Amino acid sequence: MTTHPAPIVIGYDGSPGSVSALEWAAAQAGRAAAPLRIVEAFEIVIITRPSPGKVVPLEAVRTARRQRLDEVAAKIRVEYPGLRVETALIGGAAAKTLVDAAQDARLVVLGSRGLGGWSGLLVGSVAVQVTTHAECPVVVIPHGFQPRAAQAPTVVVGVDGSKYSARAIDFAFEQADAMHAEVVALHAWTSPYLTYHDGESMLEFDEDKVREEAALLVAESVAGAAAAHPDVRWSTELPEGSAGLALIRHSESADLVVVGTRGHGGFTGLLLGSVGQNVLHHTQCPIAVVH
């Protein structure tokens, strides 16, 4: 029985952000030899007040959107000969459409903001909803992102010892292997100093021991993925302080940042943890959120 590789789904609406996401997704599909599925949501908006001028029939709008999708797919096929490219124009809200279309996907990719987003928002509601509810990894391309011409690509992954972090590490090494990139395994630690109300009494601790334990946690967390991808070079970063801020700083020079949906210390009712949300809203490079 022949099994077909799972597709990479890209959310497209013609906005600059979706064009950047399409370029990233197409390159990824080419590296992975996976089908590329270009999905556009066709949402009907009903306006009750009268509109001056000619009313365009709904079917004509649908036909024009379908033609645009076909043209986009044709360009991708020229750029990536042999790549299987599918298109889907689906009626419904964008976030639900993408989540449903990605049920059999290996990855879903979208821009941080589309045509319907408020210009003041760093990340639109569709990106937030898809990263929260999609079952597969989601890659969000930040607004205005330009691929870096770095000779040595870098994938940065957040490590905290949780099961979500373990999945993120596996994904990071898979991406790094395909991209011929180096992995930076980042674990942020916080000083356990506790200052009492008098400002004098403090809890003593051995900083070297804390760092040693943090390094051991990273080594144990990464061991399986590193063994599965022996050609991928990796290193450890142990910054003190906020994990979110450390990942955002690294995003300024990285090619991809990878985080789990939640880590240790997160509220179980949250589908996307505070670190993931923080990085999603402020990253300077593509971010992958792994469930």
UniProtKB/TrEMBL annotation:
Pfam families: Usp (PF00582)
Domain UspA: 7-142, 154-291
Family matches, as InterPro entries: Rossmann-like_a/b/a_fold, Universal_stress_UspA, UspA
Family: Belongs to the universal stress protein A family.
PANTHER family: STRESS RESPONSE PROTEIN NHAX, UNIVERSAL STRESS PROTEIN UP12
Name listed for the protein in its UniProt record: Nucleotide-binding universal stress UspA family protein
Species the sequence originates in: Kribbella solani
Upper taxonomic lineage: Bacteria, Bacillati, Actinomycetota, Actinomycetes, Propionibacteriales
